[in-house]
Amino acid sequence: MSNVKVIEPSKSSRRQRSRFIENQMRVAAYCRVSTDSEEQKTSYESQVLHYRQLVETKPEWDLVDIYADEAISGTQTSKRMEFQRMINDAVDGKIDLIITKSISRFARNTLDTLKYVRLLKEKNVAIMFEKENINTMTMNGEMLLVILSSLAQQESESISANVIMGLKMKMKRGEMVGYNGCLGYDYDPETKSISINEEEAEIVRYIFNRYVEGAGCFVIAKELTKLGYKTKKGSIRWHESTVRAMIKNEKYKGDLLQGKTFTVDPITHRRLDNMGEREKFYKENNHEPIISDEMFDRAQEILRMRSSRYNTKHDSRKFSRMHAFSSMCVCGFCGGTLIRRIWHHGTNHEKPAWQCAKCIKEGRKVCEHSKGIKEEMLEEAFVTMYNKVQKLFDTDIDEFLNNIEEALDVNSLRDEVKDLTIQIKKLEEKSQKLLDMRLEEKITEPDYNKKHHVIEKELNEFRDQREDRYETLQGEESISTRIKGFRNAFNHELKMDQFDRDILDNFIDKVIVGGKDEDGNPMPYALTFVFKAGIKFSDDFYEKVAELGTKMETEILSSYAKYDGKPAVTFASNTACGNLHIFIEEISELIISSPLQNEGTVESLIMENYRII
């Protein structure tokens, strides 16, 4: 074992930047007062005198300077010029020890205290807090930081809690809090209100109009960039996420939702989206709208449908829809998504086509029957199917949609939601008055808690009822909106001569490519167009349907096959109540059995929509 000599540390010397100084310390003092009152001025002069006398009593101390800020708040160290000068001198090696009266004099914000203590310790500069009797060089460093960190967290949490409570009270009163700018509106800081900026509002209207027409967020962003429109921040480059955020923004229909995000803790200031962990505050008709309720609701419905389609366990991609059939085509054999490829790329014969992604990436062993299909064939099939449904509309589908609309109870549900909202508002006002009485000490805390508990219980019951009614209302409004859209598409005599993407986006949910016939034989070119025609009824409607043993489905389908270079399309309804067959070659042959067995009853409306195969 080797002999190791231990060299003991020398307590009488301290290492500085470029020299050793024995038994002598360069000392600075810091003092501050927060106001310019006569009393505080006297305090300031007393502090200066105190430190001069203190240094004179210590032979081993050399006074470097006394740094003093007058009539300056301690919360913002960046505004204290003398404080900043002292820190710079310390970092430059001109100071060994800083003396100050207390932590609050050094920095009222203890987070700043912790920051500067760490900075100066790295430079071998000590700080002595007289009131707390803390010397950062003689006290255990880690223990000191724990204490200061604890103080910082306690103070920050206390301040943060008070601020949050104040903001919540403002939100409950309907006041706008933390406005960050919104394209289409100008903010008045004096009145804390927003008003329409007509020039910007035109951009907002353009975005919503294009989205409802069927354009995706990615496409709209490209259009806005090409047109040279500017964002609220002045950028001429638009992004898909910006457009999507605007479509979600309730301010454009005149409402105000606050509490969308919350701070996790006051130390890190990390913010998260409020997914229900904290309260939110919604105020209707808060300001002048740019977009009508109908258009805003239609946009949200399209957004929900697109999101639900693509936010699956295996596919969390953002929805962009660069091409008409992007993220819309599904393989009828393996369920995978079809992707767009260019056949004969780089030649005069290149053609866009759609192929099963699983088959391409994992091979035929995963999806042996799928085949690529040209984009023009998909477009041609859609045009053919649309024109056939157009001819059918006046004879059969219109009557079916009328029966569905009669079953909806939208107006009654709206009245219920409105009445419940009024009741909730009254209880919230009652709760606010009760809180004011408690703050003014007009009632005792036990009385307040007892009455507050009763009000909160009623509020929760009414809120649950409203949420339930609102969900049902949204479903039925969605049905009504889709039916209106369906009518708009087919309730006219216009024939589609060429492929129209807007109509595809508005009415087709997905396209299933490939499938098997009744005998199980693969049909790689069979196409199924699934329409957006879903309908949701009340609970007791579903119970009656369940009693009938009827399965409710939501699809309008079309099969497409290529025979001898000529497309053949077959249509038929496939519900529990009836059948409808139409063949493209023999359009005159129409076999219809009544789809409604018992007209006028709930049981007669078991079909959620029309199905064409």
UniProtKB/TrEMBL annotation:
Q: State the name under which the record lists this protein.
A: Site-specific DNA recombinase
Statement: the UniProt record of this protein carries the keyword Disulfide bond? no
Coiled-coil ranges (or none): 410-437
Q: Per the database record, which ranges form the Recombinase domain? A: 182-309
The protein's GO terms of the molecular function aspect are: DNA binding; DNA strand exchange activity
| Organism (species) | Anaerovirgula multivorans
Q: Which Pfam families match?
A: Recombinase (PF07508), Resolvase (PF00239), Zn_ribbon_recom (PF13408)
Superkingdom classification of source: Bacteria
Q: Which PANTHER family match?
A: DNA RECOMBINASE-RELATED, DNA-INVERTASE FROM LAMBDOID PROPHAGE
Q: Does the keyword Coiled coil apply?
A: yes
Keyword annotations: Coiled coil
Resolvase/invertase-type recombinase catalytic domain spans which residues?
A: 26-174
